[in-house]
Amino acid sequence: MTDCIFCKIIAGEIPGDIVYRNDLVCAFRDINPVAPTHVLIVPTRHIADNNGWADDDGPTAAAIFTAVREIAEQEGIAENGYRLIANTGPHGRQEVPHLHVHLIGGQRMQHPMG
Ligand code: DGP
Known about the structure:
Bound molecules: 2'-deoxyguanosine-5'-monophosphate
Number of strands: 5
Helix content: 10-25%
Shape: globular
Strand order of the largest sheet: 1-2-3-5-4
Largest sheet: 5 strands, antiparallel
Radius of gyration: 14 Å
Distance between the termini: 31 Å
């Protein structure tokens, strides 16, 4: 999608600190990190939000969770743990309309959510 900022990062049209990529997913550091590790994992195909999965996107959904596991290991946060967030739509306060999972870690999170 031509006017999508995350599609532009995936395509290399604007800079992004990419930490992981394959055919199905790409992951890069959030521009406004809220913790020592804050990575966004996105499908390379433009999917607006969690309502946009197609029936044949199962491999992409699995690839996102595989990426989470591998990036957590790369970042050294797998053992202590981390938080995953996928804001969706206005009530979820999703700001960028390209499906993304926030991987946040490197410190103990505040509790609870909301
Ligand atoms: P959300 O509210 O879940 O849609 O979060 C969007 C996140 O995207 C937010 O934490 C900031 C991040 N972000 C927005 N623009 C850019 C950008 O141009 N580059 C990077 N790396 N992150 C961005």
